[in-house]
């Protein structure tokens, strides 16, 4: 059955997303407005009778250097997408029309992140791996479950000429979207079940915050500067490059305009001072803990734990099937400063999930190679 790929309207895209249980927050139309350096386009996959059977947000990044009229070339990027039936046999009929359309748009290469889970490790399995000196990476630990369909999809992509990108960064954190994430399953569980699944330290910290009088409130656009002040302190403490306040203001305006609950801000107060804050994103029944921030002052009252539990409580009330704490390291070495973050997330009693990762297809090999050299010298 032939498939056509062509641009669709924002409303068509949103309707397709709304008809699915969930989709990545990077695959909704509003995400394009969060990335002003990229040109965003909504694509639709249509079958032979004209039914919309897939959708994707593609971000087009122009090549650096002088822009000659009629010769603009782009890197096309579909983060955690496209939203198609990845498990249907014959991926060629879904991906080849996409490549043909993007080639006509001037793309010299296409990058995508199939939302396909490969392996899962329970919290107990991850803890066992951390304690095992022979396990240097998560992949050295026996997975709790494995989906063989993911291996078939990876094989099909390689056969079609797609290349899996290197993980890059420290501890397996990719330059694009994370390959390894930590998620807490909510489907079919009561809030008491979820609370019981937290480890003793998590439960103790939540109780400490309650006894200390920490109050967590929903914030709004005008509260983003308070969040960002803490975020800047967190960046300095944890040694990462922070995003500017304007990024979060743009993110808030774009996402909440699309849906009032697409993005939420939570702030933890103690004695009138904001000690911790975090953002939460929602698409369908999937909820993400997105960005967190805290001060080093009065950490004994556990404001970050209070924020997390409030977000988990609200996510459950929203009907979430998954509470996603996003990226984790796949490095289990004690020397890694990212191991503490992994231990923190393991305390939720959820599971580590490995996705298929990001893949690239060079449409113009000369430009693709030149772009790779440019990135390597930055």
Approximately how much helix is present in the residues?
A: 25-40%
Number of contiguous helices? 12
Name the CATH superfamily assignment of the largest domain: Gcn5-related N-acetyltransferase (GNAT)
Examine the coordinates and then state which fold CATH places here, giving the name of the CATH topology of the largest domain.
Aminopeptidase
Strand order in the largest sheet: 7-6-15-9-14-13-12-11-10
InterPro entries: Acyl_CoA_acyltransferase, FEMABX, PG_Glycine_Bridge_Synth
Family: Belongs to the FemABX family.
GO biological process, one term: regulation of cell shape
Protein name: Lipid II:glycine glycyltransferase (Peptidoglycan interpeptide bridge formation enzyme)
Q: Can you offer a commentary on this structure?
A:
With 378 residues, the chain is of the alpha+beta class. It has two domains: 4-113 and 358-377, Gcn5-related N-acetyltransferase (GNAT) (Aminopeptidase, 3-Layer(aba) Sandwich), CATH 3.40.630; 118-145 and 170-355, 3-Layer(aba) Sandwich (Aminopeptidase), CATH 3.40.630.30. Helix content is 35%, strand content 26%. It has twelve helices and 16 strands. It has helices at residues 10-18, 31-34, 92-104, 123-131, 148-159, 191-197, 200-212, 224-238, 245-258, 303-317, 339-346, 365-377, and strands at residues 4-7, 39-46, 52-62, 74-78, 107-112, 117-122, 145-146, 163-164, 180-185, 215-218, 263-270, 273-283, 286-294, 322-327, 351-355, 359-362. The strands form two sheets. Strands 7-6-15-9-14-13-12-11-10 form a nine-stranded mixed β-sheet. A hairpin with a 2-residue loop joins strand 12 (273-283) and strand 13 (286-294). It is globular, with a radius of gyration of 21 Å. Belongs to the FemABX family. One of its GO terms (molecular function) is aminoacyltransferase activity. It comes from Streptomyces violarus. Keywords: Acyltransferase, Cell shape, Cell wall biogenesis/degradation, Peptidoglycan synthesis, Transferase. This is Lipid II:glycine glycyltransferase (Peptidoglycan interpeptide bridge formation enzyme).
